[in-house]
Amino acid sequence: MIRVTRTQKPALLADKETSWKRDIHLASTDAARKKAQDKYKHEDIKKALIDMFRGKCAYCESYITHIDYGHIEHFKPKGTPAYYELAVEWDNLFLACGRCNGAENKGTKFPLADEGGPLVNPVNEEPSRHLRFDFDPKLKMANVLGLSKRGETTRIILGLNRPELLKHRSKFVKKLWVIAVRYHQDAEAREIIDSAIGPEEEYSAFARALRKSLVRSQD
């Protein structure tokens, strides 16, 4: 997870958000509310989110769009009465993979402070203050570790170390680690690592952590 800058609200939402929220507020039945909330599914909104998150899951940083359509994720769940109107609020919308956003992980969960929350918001804060992106050279494992109570809650609820993700991510980061140890001796290695930390790259949080720990130690 990396910090992502919220882009400009899509023109459609800039024009319709207020009226859409009013429709949700005035809905007299669950069916009417759901119909009003579902306007967030417009393709212009989805495209804007794909562009903002560079086609990656806001949480696990896995690429989505080459294998799946991805989810429009509501950071604060739209099914919770206090957050009904946030179904169409730009600041509440993320792009997420079906696994992070699935019922077995985040789903409709949104823990409050007394439950270890709130979850780390990659748009409003720096995730690395709460999460450590650790690669163990001996075990060849790329784990996400909680640095704070909120970070640990976020790690658990999002399933950031779920077995399939951990296996895939560890293979990827292991290759980066092999390259990173040659950073000062090889111009091509430097180019690869410097590129891997870019916000558009898969698992760039781990690339940044590697660069910080291995590259700076050699300076």
Verbal overview:
The protein has 219 residues and is mainly α. The chain has two domains: 100 residues, His-Me finger endonuclease fold (3-Layer(aba) Sandwich); 76 residues, no CATH class. It contains seven helices and four strands, in the order αααββββαααα. The strands form two sheets. A two-stranded antiparallel sheet has the order 1-2. Helix 1 packs antiparallel against helix 2 and helix 5 runs parallel beside helix 7. The radius of gyration is 19 Å and the shape is elongated. The two termini are 26 Å apart. The relative contact order is 0.12. The model has no long low-confidence stretch (mean pLDDT 95).
Name the features:
single chain, 219 residues, mainly alpha, His-Me finger endonuclease fold, 2 domains, two-stranded antiparallel ribbon, 7 helices, 38% helix
